[in-house]
């Protein structure tokens, strides 16, 4: 980060159970007919927005507990949310789910009682890979804020056409209808320009009059299926955050010093944030196929990235006891020298986030970074590691590991490999993982809304 955050200490005492957002979130995303009921109990703190809440059956209660605390900074009401969304072809049946969930999440944040000043930014998992770069330019962590209706070609390939389910069925506004107003940032010295993020709060917005925030979010969120199959969510996150501190980049100023930073990954692939193009080239083309799951293949698969960045311990047949990040050199040997690792070490990403967090804590010592991942885990958020293809004979060759989840438990439908590198980065900040194979992502954003509210009372 090139900008230091201003250091200030403002001491005061505050006592409250819930930020109003924590109440609203419980009811905003879950259908009233069949969703869980929650008993929040009575609210007897200092919040004037509080109101009684209904009770529920004991076995369906969600006990949020008390967030009564003493803090040394004003309550944070600002939230910067970065979405890193996989735009490869395997995400074709998930674009509509993403739009619906992000739209509901934006509506939650926009609730007038919550008084949250928030920004939503979107980037893809497409950075650079020698097998994809010749096919078109990669996004490299660029913040994208355009309606999917203005990029319908992004939702169509030779094999698939999801222009309807991925865009037009969920979005009704074009860029012309979503023309953004110029805004200033804390770094722009009052100069206003059109920013590549959605910005709402304090009775203002960069949206045109008459456009609901959830409608805009549904149009901005779907990223298409045009991107590289060698998805790099961690590197895309890294680059997007670097762009936010680059005065020459349109994303400059996205990260506010006092704001809660929230990062959401959505992918059905493993992380392939590599440092060596050699591992993707065949021996015939001067490459090194030591990480290829099947060297007889005419082309590399995502299994190259798994084998180059992960090690597992085996316990029962094909089932692994655990899998963890492992740096490896070009010869396939484990290495402690991060400079020769063929994959970007995960410390690249945790170090960047720790530096951002340290600067934020100069303002508010209670600040956190929230990371939520929608990835290849089961319905309980558990990653399963196995060499069994589970009815998908080519899956292990394609990914280096068996499926971590399948939609509806049906192997003939979409499946996703389990995360390791992404999981370890998220867990360094107490992040949570959810299944990308779920039929909808509503619960993800219910939980995320609660997590945000718990940080907003500090």
Q: Main beta sheet, described?
A: 7 strands, mixed
Q: Give the low-pLDDT segments.
A: 1-20, 26-74
* CATH structural class of the domain at 78-273 and 344-383 and 419-456: Alpha Beta
Reported by name, the CATH topology of the domain at 78-273 and 344-383 and 419-456 is: Rossmann fold
User: What's the pLDDT, averaged over the residues?
Assistant: 82
- Tell the overall outline: globular
For the CA atoms, what is the radius of gyration? 22 Å
Enumerate how many helices there are, as a single number. Answer: 10
Helical proportion, percent range: 10-25%
Second-tier CATH architecture of the domain at 78-273 and 344-383 and 419-456: 3-Layer(aba) Sandwich
Task: Give the strand tally.
Answer: 11
| Percentage of residues in strands | 5-15%
CATH superfamily (homologous) name of the domain at 78-273 and 344-383 and 419-456: von Willebrand factor, type A domain
Straight-line distance between termini? 24 Å
How do the helices and strands follow one another from N- to C-terminus? HEHEHEEHHEHEEHEHEEHEH
Strand order of the largest sheet: 4-3-2-1-5-8-11
Secondary structure class reads alpha/beta
Q: What is the secondary structure topology, with strand pairs?
A:
Elements: H1 20-28, E1 78-85, H2 95-109, E2 117-124, H3 163-168, E3 198-201, E4 204-205, H4 213-220, H5 233-243, E5 260-266, H6 303-309, E6 310-316, E7 319-325, H7 347-360, E8 369-375, H8 395-399, E9 405-406, E10 415-416, H9 421-427, E11 432-435, H10 442-456
Parallel strand pairs: 1-2, 1-5, 5-8, 8-11
Antiparallel strand pairs: 2-3, 3-4, 6-7, 9-10
């Amino acid at each position: 980060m090139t900008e230091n955050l201003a250091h200030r200490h403002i001491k005061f005492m505050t006592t409250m159970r819930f930020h109003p957002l924590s109440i609203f979130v419980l009811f905003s995303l879950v259908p009233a007919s069949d969703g869980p009921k929650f008993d929040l109990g009575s609210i007897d703190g200092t919040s004037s927005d509080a109101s009684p809440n209904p009770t529920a059956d004991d076995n369906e209660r969600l006990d949020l507990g008390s967030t009564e605390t003493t803090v040394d900074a004003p309550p944070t009401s600002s939230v910067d949310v970065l979405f890193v969304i996989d735009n490869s072809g395997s995400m074709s049946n998930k674009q509509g789910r993403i739009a619906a969930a992000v739209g509901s999440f934006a509506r939650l944040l926009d609730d007038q009682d919550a008084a949250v000043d928030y920004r939503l930014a979107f980037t893809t998992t497409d950075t650079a890979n020698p097998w994809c770069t010749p096919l078109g330019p990669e996004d490299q962590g660029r913040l994208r804020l355009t309606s999917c209706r203005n990029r319908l070609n992004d939702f169509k390939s030779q094999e698939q056409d999801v222009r309807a389910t991925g865009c037009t069925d969920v979005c009704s506004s074009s860029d012309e209808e979503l023309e953004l107003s110029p805004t200033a940032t804390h770094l722009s010295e009052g100069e206003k320009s059109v920013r590549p993020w959605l910005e709402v709060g304090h009775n203002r917005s960069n949206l045109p009059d008459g456009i609901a925030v959830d409608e805009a979010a549904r149009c901005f969120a779907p990223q298409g299926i045009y991107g590289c199959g060698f998805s790099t969510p961690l590197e895309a996150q890294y680059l997007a955050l670097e762009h936010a501190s680059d005065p020459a980049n349109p994303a400059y100023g996205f990260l506010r010093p006092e704001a809660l930073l929230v990062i959401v990954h959505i992918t059905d692939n493993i992380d392939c944030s590599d440092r060596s193009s050699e591992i993707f080239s065949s021996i015939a083309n001067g490459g090194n196929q030591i990480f290829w799951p099947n060297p007889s293949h005419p082309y590399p698969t995502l299994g190259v990235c798994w084998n180059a960045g992960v090690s597992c311990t085996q316990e029962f047949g094909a089932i692994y006891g655990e899998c963890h990040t492992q740096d490896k050199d070009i010869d396939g040997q484990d290495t402690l020298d991060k400079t020769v690792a063929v994959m970007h070490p995960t410390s690249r990403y945790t170090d960047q986030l720790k530096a951002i967090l340290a600067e934020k804590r100069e303002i508010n010592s209670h600040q956190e970074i929230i990371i939520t991942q929608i990835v290849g885990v089961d319905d309980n958020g558990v990653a399963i590691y196995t060499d069994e293809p589970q009815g998908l004979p080519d899956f292990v060759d394609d990914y280096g590991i068996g499926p971590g989840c399948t939609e509806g438990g049906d192997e003939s439908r979409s499946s996703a490999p389990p995360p390791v590198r992404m999981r370890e980065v998220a867990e360094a900040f107490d992040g949570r993982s959810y299944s990308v194979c779920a039929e909808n992502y509503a619960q993800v954003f219910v939980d995320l809304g609660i997590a945000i509210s718990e940080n907003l009372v500090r």
